[in-house]
């Protein structure tokens, strides 16, 4: 297949591209190269003649049409998105522009292009809102109840994708994933924030009491799931992808601290650095995914348990300190975001 990946220089997109190129697919990466882009994660793919890169914005209708005409992809994997909840609180307009207008622009380009193209829209479990401690996990039939500007923008884009499939007959499919982690994740998300702060001996800022629960999914397992959805997912359907690894934020941070105590005993105990800070506005209490459908229909299961996945992720950040130090020096210094509310 020839596959157009939008946002392929991002954390999840780069993992998808690495796997696609290894499997022999032809890949075109359309990426704006925003603050969170990591071109270094694509060095492996960049050496392949089956990979090409186009720098540009998914909201640029003329550029998107040109890419579709020149590269004639068989499928689109749409990962380009603004994705950090705290940033959406401070500046929601960018999320509406990229996540809603960008998705609309791509759908319209496919509709007007006159060629059958499979359109796989990658979304989040945050569109479903917040679960109570005894609630059943999210599934494909869970009603949408977004609580942040970020999740609202993704919910809107999910609805656009389904509508263009039902109204215009596009070959669309959607997947909604739980919290990803792994190598190359931009250091504004929970796990890299805590690893880096602990290595530097700085406070580990946990929102509220740290009781918020997330279902953790390794990015390489997620990339495998996305490839399965693209290849075998039913038209106009959705698939929930989770790691079956619910943990409180506090438990995740304590696990990071315990691992660092073993690897860097000179800084132990690292959990002395844990600091509780004012909670994020509208902070969802719990996310959990029922991945039964993708397991049963597409044969996908996660290969990494959370403990081994976290250990490998920690090793990667310790071994790649120059990468994240460069980001902290030039693009994001680790300051608290999402305070404008």
Task: Describe the protein in words.
With 341 residues, this protein is an alpha/beta fold. It has twelve helices and twelve strands. The protein has helices at 11-22, 43-46, 61-71, 85-90, 92-113, 149-168, 190-200, 219-232, 249-263, 292-298, 306-319, 321-330; strands spanning 2-6, 26-31, 51-55, 75-78, 118-124, 171-177, 179-181, 204-207, 213-218, 238-241, 246-248, 274-277. A seven-stranded parallel beta sheet has the order 3-2-1-4-5-6-10, sandwiched between helices. Strands 7-9-11 form a three-stranded mixed beta sheet. α1 (11-22) packs across α8, α5 packs parallel to α6 (149-168) and α9 (249-263) packs across α11 (306-319). The longest helix is centred in the N-terminal third of the chain and has 22 residues, at 92-113. The termini are far apart. The mean pLDDT is 97.
Please give the structural blueprint.
Blueprint: E1 2-6, H1 11-22, E2 26-31, H2 43-46, E3 51-55, H3 61-71, E4 75-78, H4 85-90, H5 92-113, E5 118-124, H6 149-168, E6 171-177, E7 179-181, H7 190-200, E8 204-207, E9 213-218, H8 219-232, E10 238-241, E11 246-248, H9 249-263, E12 274-277, H10 292-298, H11 306-319, H12 321-330
Parallel strand pairs: 1-2, 1-4, 2-3, 4-5, 5-6, 6-10, 7-9, 8-12
Antiparallel strand pairs: 9-11
Helix pairs in contact: 1-8, 3-5, 5-6, 7-9, 9-11
Record field, number of beta strands = 12
Mean of residue pLDDT?
A: 97
Approximate shape: globular
Structural class by secondary-structure content: alpha/beta
């Amino acid at each position: 297949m020839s596959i157009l990946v939008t946002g392929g220089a991002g954390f999840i997109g780069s993992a998808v591209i690495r796997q696609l190129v290894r499997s022999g697919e032809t890949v075109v990466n359309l990426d704006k190269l925003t603050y969170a882009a990591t071109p270094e994660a694509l060095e492996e793919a960049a050496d392949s003649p089956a990979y090409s890169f186009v720098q540009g914005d998914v909201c640029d209708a003329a550029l998107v049409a040109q890419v579709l005409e020149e590269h004639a992809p068989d499928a689109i994997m749409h990962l380009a998105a603004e994705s950090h909840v705290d940033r959406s609180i401070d500046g929601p307009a960018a999320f509406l522009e990229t996540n809603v207008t960008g998705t609309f622009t791509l759908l319209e380009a496919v509709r007007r292009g006159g060629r059958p193209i499979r359109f796989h829209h990658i979304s989040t479990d945050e569109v479903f809102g917040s679960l109570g401690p005894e609630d059943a996990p999210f599934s494909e039939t869970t009603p949408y109840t977004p609580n942040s500007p970020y999740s609202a923008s993704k919910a809107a884009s999910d609805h656009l994708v389904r509508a263009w499939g039902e109204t215009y007959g596009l070959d669309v499919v959607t997947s909604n994933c739980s919290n990803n982690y792994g190598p190359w994740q931009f250091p504004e998300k929970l796990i890299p924030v805590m690893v880096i702060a602990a290595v530097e001996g700085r406070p580990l800022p946990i929102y509220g009491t740290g009781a918020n629960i997330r279902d953790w999914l390794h990015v390489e397992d997620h990339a495998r799931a996305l490839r399965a959805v693209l290849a075998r997912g039913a038209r106009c359907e959705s698939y929930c992808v989770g790691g079956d690894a619910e943990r409180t934020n506090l438990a995740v941070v304590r696990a990071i601290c315990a691992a660092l105590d073993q690897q860097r005993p000179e800084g132990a105990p690292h959990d002395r650095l844990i600091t509780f800070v004012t909670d994020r506005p509208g902070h969802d209490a719990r996310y959990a995914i029922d991945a039964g459908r993708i397991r049963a229909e597409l044969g996908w299961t996660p290969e990494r348990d959370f403990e081994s996945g976290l250990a490998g992720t920690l090793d990667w950040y310790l071994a790649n300190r120059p990468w994240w130090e460069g980001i902290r020096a030039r693009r994001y210094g680790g300051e608290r975001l999402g305070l404008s509310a």
